[in-house]
Write a structure and sequence with these properties.
By secondary structure, the protein is mainly alpha-helical. It has two domains: 28 residues; 61 residues. It contains three helices and no strands. Helix 1 packs across helix 2, helix 1 runs parallel beside helix 3 and helix 2 runs antiparallel to helix 3. Bound molecules: zinc ion.
Length: 103
């Protein structure tokens, strides 16, 4: 093809003219990949809270795609897991205390 600015014959694959430096031809426009919405989703957080395993898996799988959303999910899952652990310890302690006081 020929440069549209100076008329020098240039390679068909050339993006800029080697002679005058003008950009030639169609600049390669890559079709923009649909960007996954990276928003902290309340629904996902609630789901992660009740099913911590889901949150952790989601975090692991989607960390690159939607880091914010995945992180929120993962953190919620961990918080939920810690809370569950904490609650179960408290419940078992209370239960043990009640049992010993009843006996
Ligand atoms: Zn040129």
């Amino acid at each position: 093809m020929f440069c549209s600015k100076c008329g020098t014959e240039i390679s068909d694959e050339a993006v800029i003219c080697v002679h005058c430096g003008a950009s030639v031809g169609q600049p390669e426009t890559k079709p923009e990949a649909p960007v996954a919405e990276d928003k902290v989703s309340i629904g996902f957080c609630i789901l992660a809270f009740f099913i911590p395993l889901f949150g952790v898996i989601y975090w692991a799988l989607k960390y690159k795609e939607t880091p914010k959303k995945a992180k929120a999910c993962g953190i919620t899952a961990i918080v939920s897991w810690v809370l569950n652990l904490f609650l179960s310890v408290i419940i078992s302690v209370v239960y043990a205390v009640l049992m010993t006081s009843l006996m």
